[in-house]
Amino acid sequence: MTFQIELVSPESISYSGEAEMVVARTLDGGDIAFQPGHVPFIGVLAVWSVDVIRPDGDRDTIAVHQGFVQVVGTKVSILSDVSESADQIDVERARAAKSSAEAALAADKEDADAAGALARAELRLRVAGAEA
Amino acid sequence: MAGGRERVLRRRISSVQNTKKITRAMELIAATRVVKAQQRARAAKPYAEQITSVIENLAAGGAEVDHPLLRRAEKVERVGVVVISSDRGLAGPYNTTVIRAAERQVQNARSEGADYALIVIGKKARDYFRFRNFTIDSYTDGISDNPTYEDARRVAETVASMFTLGRVDRVELVYTEFMSIGSQKVTTRRFLPLESTETIAAVGGGEAAVSGSFEFEPSPEAVLAALLPRYVEARLFGALLESAASEHANRQRAMKAATDNAEELITKLSREMNRARQDSITTEIMEIVSGAEALGSDDETEDRPAAVGVEA
Q1: A67, B119, B143, B207: least buried by Cβ within 10 Å?
Q2: Is residue B290 part of a domain?
Q3: How far apart are alpha carbons A38 and B83 in whole angstroms?
Q4: Which fold has domain A3-85?
């Protein structure tokens, strides 16, 4: 049994397809996996990846920089301002962003912007498969 | 001199022809951009619908929070007016109608005894209000003909922070709604405070869930608090996209009318020019004939006078 997954950004539908299972991470809630027949669910997503396990067993990993997930019936919708799949990620840029964020954090541990930037850069690198 | 008139007309025709070429080109460009803008507006619909649907489900789940964006002022002291106009003209009545509607909102605010704050998008509205000595609180340009979500977010943030800081107690959004290629309508919408979640849900637009009981994580309130700012952005983004499509549709129509008028003018002028040319030819022939006659009457006097004599 499969269900529909849709990744919706403000400008377009950036990903849509069938899935057997979807794994996401909610804000301070930890990882959560959805399978067909899940209870209706609405959650706020953390800066983390969303894994889509397709019916053919392959796995699509998408970096989602915050957003919402809504599960209704046989449909999972993920709303996010920014989401990227592995091939859309610029690894060099993410590396540069990571080191500059780390530098900023080293100077000021309370810098929330830098902490956010670091989290996003690390996520990008992880999704792109280039663990730094 | 008759030939001078002809020359003037010929010059005029070629200038009208050049204008026609320009308006025709603008018409064609606007036509393709309308289609693109329409597609973008359509592509942005799912997000807005999904957000509305989440809010609907939250409302059904009984989440009602005390969020700053829902704050309803007891007395409205300052009304914010967001007006979306274009940067460039030659778009027919597009800018004037939307600007006039915005000015009406300002007057409404004044008649309620409230102050106003103008949040202006597009050069045309800025020029209008600046010329008339209105105070402009916030101005953004360069986004109206091809708006991105980032642009919408920036403006929405400005407006939302004005509202949450209490600098304005109500915000009206004045923009041009795109109904179809042939019809666009200036619309004024309450932008802030947001309607309660129940009202958003009732107005709908999203697909309401069939099943009732939702699980929320972290909590319904937290979800709503994270969601409302996005909802504000999505609404402004939608309005920007519709305005862009309307702008291009209006420009296309205006330029089509201009091209048609130029064509008409060219026919009229070339008729006039032909008449002038004929007049001058006739005059010239007359001159030649009478000149020849004058010469001829000197040489052979029997010819004409004899004929005249026979007739008489």
Answers
A1: B207
A2: no
A3: 44
A4: ATP Synthase; domain 1 (2.60.15)
Structure tokens at A72: 């209704």
Q: Which residues of B touch A68 (CB under 8 A)?
A: 54, 223, 226-227, 230
What is the extent of the structural domain holding B153? Answer: 28-201+220-258
In this complex, the residue of B43, B53, B215 whose CB is nearest that of residue A41 is B215
Residue B210 lies in a domain: no
Burial of A106 (0-12, 13-18, 19+ CB in 10 A): exposed
**Joined tokens for residue A92:** 């060099």
Structure confidence by residue, pLDDT tens digits, B101-160: 999 999 999 999 899 999 999 999 999 999 999 999 999 999 988 899 999 999 999 999
Any domain includes B38: yes
- Min Cα–Cα distance to chain B from A69, Å: 9
Instruction: Read off the pLDDT of each residue in B208-234 and give the average, rounded to a whole number.
Output: 79
pLDDT of residue B308 exceeding 90? no
ipTM of this predicted structure: 0.80
Which amino acid is it at B21?
K
Average confidence (pLDDT) over B252-281: 94
User: Per the CB < 8 Å rule, is B213 touching A40?
Assistant: yes
85-104 of A, contacting B, C-beta below 8 A: none
Q: Which of B44, B58, B226 sits opposite A11 (nearest CB)?
A: B44
Q: Would the CB atoms of B51 and A41 count as touching at under 8 Å?
A: no
In a domain, B76, yes or no: yes
Q: How many residues does chain B have?
A: 312
How many helices and strands in chain B, by DSSP H and E? 7, 6
How many structural domains is chain B composed of? Answer: 1
- Average pLDDT over chain B reads 87
As a whole number of Å, the end-to-end CA separation of chain B is: 38
